[in-house]
Protein 1
Amino acid sequence: MFTGIIEGEGIIASLKKEGGNIQLSLRCPFTSELKIDQSLSHNGVCLTVISVDKDIYQVTAIEETLKRTNLGSLKPNDLINLERCMKLGDRLDGHLVQGHVDQTGTCKTIEEQQGSWVFGFEYDTSKGNITVEKGSICVNGVSLTVVDSSEGYFSVAIIPYTYQHTNFRTLKAGDKVNLEFDILGKYAAKLLRKQYSA
């Protein structure tokens, strides 16, 4: 379980294809503190640390993960948002994030607004996911509040600190992002669909 508050950025050192999977080797500010079997959010995707060697650690993204996320499009030197799992008793500064990406979305617009930025994203509605204004959304592992919401579209406002300390500053229109929709919203949407189909 995560909070969507990014701890630091990792740099992809190398990628190695293994059958349908990809093994990612990364550097990050806290590599020396990582342990094998530890859960770590990578652009919102919960992956398990499989090795740590000096300043490099490794994780494996399986084929199912690659189908649902943007991890398959990563290249060496790309920046990735990182968060270690939350500890019981910690403050919950973001919202409850599972690290289970629901689908990808596409960055459609980036608008600078006198010191902040508004990013607009589109996503496929056939999967039944929804957003609501002032609700929570996790984009590339970052806990954010929805500004505008319509069918298949939402926008978020990014403050300077978030822009400078996450890979939001590298996003361009057309880029794919990982989306994890709010867990409460997913349950509510599923219950409503079930009720109306009965």
Protein 2
Amino acid sequence: MDQTAPVTLLGSHAPLPTDPKDARLECFPNRTPDRPYWVHLDYPEFSSLCPVTGQPDTCRLRICYVPYRLCLETKSLKYYLASWRNTAAFNEDVVNRLLDELSQACAPARMIVRGDFSARGGIRLTAQASLPPGMVENPFGL
């Protein structure tokens, strides 16, 4: 991502991308880069596809990050997350790929991505990935 590019999706009527590779994650400058603070984003309607059955997997997706120089712009994030609807991936892979792509876009000081997936076969799966790896602090309070 070109971190100097202006925010373009906000205020536009662009169509939703159909694949995460076609989505554009946009950022804007953090006005207080010297003050660490958490940004909590909650997306209760995330969906992707099971790579084996092709059935939809849904989850409550929570993203928490401490911005450094850039903050994620939420409309572009909404478009990016919606683009996953037709993407086949295992739940654990989804969470790890989201962490990789979101952290690449905004280069945060810290980030946690957590997916609380709906039960399949009577089992609920929660996957959580963090940056830096092994970070034990959990801003979700869980």
